[in-house]
């Protein structure tokens, strides 16, 4: 029983990280139709921004306080990068989807190369608060505390994004602009500015995912964002392209399947199980590749 509980909690924690990585990707595609392969660069930038912040802050500060500041900096860095990428690279290509893919793939490769050139290819260790490194005993199972943090942050992000889309004027403009951009612009509303804000929000979510994933991995590296992006794409496709709630459910399923398969089958089988799950979903529900509402 304790082993099963441990697997469930660790699987949920991993799924929470996958949702953090996939939420911005799903938001940008669902509302703007942009398949952003540079999303991994946003996550890598957030991870390095967090690492640099924690390193540069006075060591006399508690690690938890430095991590909190690092999270804020990572979110801001991700938002700024997302905004700049949308304005400079994506905006001129909204009606050219192939060019969008090529540009974002090129940016992804350039971002990894830049990180390697500046900080080297070797992983850099990051500090973790003592409480997050510890465990809590529940029903005989020693559960890692950091998983609870990831789950809580993912739930807050999901609730915040859904509330933004459903109960705010910005969310109304976003959804209306997706349905009929011409009509919204005829009412004097700047839809382009709204879409830029959406891209910045997606970048901020990616920065958050990057800094928290570095805590999970215990290090930052240039290819970290790209590795996480693979699972983010799998989650987005399984959950339905552009559906935030579907993405959240898919992230939980993928995290649990991966953990359970690795434990009950063999190490590494979890990754294969996730790929097989993706193939099964595409065979049974090809509409996953089409856009869906949040």
UniProtKB/TrEMBL annotation:
<dbReference type="GO" id="GO:0022857">
    <property type="term" value="F:transmembrane transporter activity"/>
</dbReference>
<keyword id="KW-0812">Transmembrane</keyword>
<dbReference type="GO" id="GO:0006865">
    <property type="term" value="P:amino acid transport"/>
</dbReference>
<feature type="transmembrane region" description="Helical">
    <location>
        <begin position="101"/>
        <end position="119"/>
    </location>
</feature>
<dbReference type="InterPro" id="IPR052157">
    <property type="entry name" value="BCAA_transport_permease"/>
</dbReference>
<feature type="transmembrane region" description="Helical">
    <location>
        <begin position="63"/>
        <end position="89"/>
    </location>
</feature>
<keyword id="KW-1133">Transmembrane helix</keyword>
<feature type="transmembrane region" description="Helical">
    <location>
        <begin position="263"/>
        <end position="284"/>
    </location>
</feature>
<keyword id="KW-1003">Cell membrane</keyword>
<dbReference type="InterPro" id="IPR001851">
    <property type="entry name" value="ABC_transp_permease"/>
</dbReference>
<keyword id="KW-0813">Transport</keyword>
<feature type="transmembrane region" description="Helical">
    <location>
        <begin position="148"/>
        <end position="165"/>
    </location>
</feature>
<comment type="similarity">
    <text>Belongs to the binding-protein-dependent transport system permease family. LivHM subfamily.</text>
</comment>
<feature type="transmembrane region" description="Helical">
    <location>
        <begin position="34"/>
        <end position="51"/>
    </location>
</feature>
<feature type="transmembrane region" description="Helical">
    <location>
        <begin position="228"/>
        <end position="256"/>
    </location>
</feature>
<protein>
    <submittedName>
        <fullName>Branched-chain amino acid transport system permease protein</fullName>
    </submittedName>
</protein>
<keyword id="KW-0029">Amino-acid transport</keyword>
<dbReference type="Pfam" id="PF02653">
    <property type="entry name" value="BPD_transp_2"/>
</dbReference>
<feature type="transmembrane region" description="Helical">
    <location>
        <begin position="195"/>
        <end position="216"/>
    </location>
</feature>
<feature type="transmembrane region" description="Helical">
    <location>
        <begin position="6"/>
        <end position="27"/>
    </location>
</feature>
<keyword id="KW-0472">Membrane</keyword>
<dbReference type="GO" id="GO:0005886">
    <property type="term" value="C:plasma membrane"/>
</dbReference>
